[in-house]
Amino acid sequence: MYEVQNSHRDAQPTEGEREIWNQISAVLQDSESILADLQAYKGAGPEIRDAIQNPNDIQLQEKAWNAVCPLVVRLKRFYEFSIRLEKALQSLLESLTCPPYTPTQHLEREQALAKEFAEILHFTLRFDELKMRNPAIQNDFSYYRRTISRNRINNMHLDIENEVNNEMANRMSLFYAEATPMLKTLSNATMHFVSENKTLPIENTTDCLSTMTSVCKVMLETPEYRSRFTSEETLMFCMRVMVGVIILYDHVHPVGAFCKTSKIDMKGCIKVLKEQAPDSVEGLLNALRFTTKHLNDESTSKQIRAMLQ
Q: CA separation (Å) from 281 to 195, 278, 290?
C-alpha cells in the first residue's frame, strides 16, 4: 500500500503472511474474469419483451426462457464470488488488526496483505460501477423468478432449478437489489468481523481503515507522488481504494466517517475526487452518496453535504 505508486502488485509476502496471502490470491485470481464476464453481460431484454407482449406464443416463451437461464447461471457465479470475497476480507482484517502491532505497523510490516486488501476494494468498486450501469441484470433475474413461480409444472425448469433453487434465488435477489452489492457485502463482512471480535478494540479496525485512506489521499494530492503514477489505471486504483475504505470505515465506526471527530479528512478526500475528470469519478462520488451510512446524520457538516450534492 505504501509503495502503490510503483506498482500495486509487487510486494512479496513474508513467511508469516504467505498462507493467508495464497488464500486471498486464489480469490483475486478470478476477479478479472468476473469483471470481464460482467462487462460482456448484455441481458435478455428483447426476448423477455417479446415473451411478455405475446403471452400465448409458446415459442417466444421458450426463447426468452432459454436466453435467461444461462444468464442466471452467470449471476449465480458472481453472487458466489461475493461470498468468497467476504471470507477473504475477514481473513485479511484478522491479520491486519491483531495485537500487539498498531494498524500503521501492520500496514508497514505486511505490505503484501495491505495490497491484497487494496486489490479487493479496487475489484469491488469496479464490479459495482458496472452493475449500476446495467439494469438488465435485475430485469433478467426478476423475469426468471416470475417464470419459475408461475409455471412450476412445466418440465423445462428442472435443470436450472437444481442449479438455482428457491433459497438460492432469494439470496441472489437480496444481493442484486442493492445498488452496490459487492460494497454492501464487504461492509457487512467488516461489521460482522468487529462484532465477532469483541475483545479486539474497534479502533484497531477503524485505524487500519483510516490509515489506508490517508495514504491514498496523500498520494493523490501530492504532486511528487502523482507524477509517479504511470497510468490512468493506477490513478483509478488509488481513488477506488480510498473510497472503498471510507465506506467500510463509515459502516464500522460508531459515528462514521463524516463527523468532526472522524480520523478521515473527508473534505480533503472529496476535494481530491472532484479534481479528476468528472466521468471517471462520478461512480465513486455516487458510492459515497448512496452507500455510506452516516452522510445524512445531523453531525455531518453542511459543507461536506454540499460538496456531495
A: 32, 5, 14
Q: What is the per-residue pLDDT across 208-259, written as a single tens digit (0 to 9) for each?
A: 888 888 888 888 887 777 777 777 778 888 889 899 999 999 998 988 999 8
Scan for cell 474474469, then name that residue: 33
Q: Tabulate helix, strand, coil % of the chain (nearest 5).
A: 75, 0, 25
Distances 48 to 45, 72, 178 between C-alpha atoms, Å? 5, 14, 22
Three-state DSSP at 67 gives helix
Task: Return the amino acid letter for 304.
Answer: I
Query: Residue 11 gets which letter from DSSP?
Result: P
- Residue 254, preceding bond cis, omega within 30 degrees? no
The structure's pTM equals 0.83
- DSSP letters, 277-298, are -HHHHHHHHHHHHHH-SSTTST
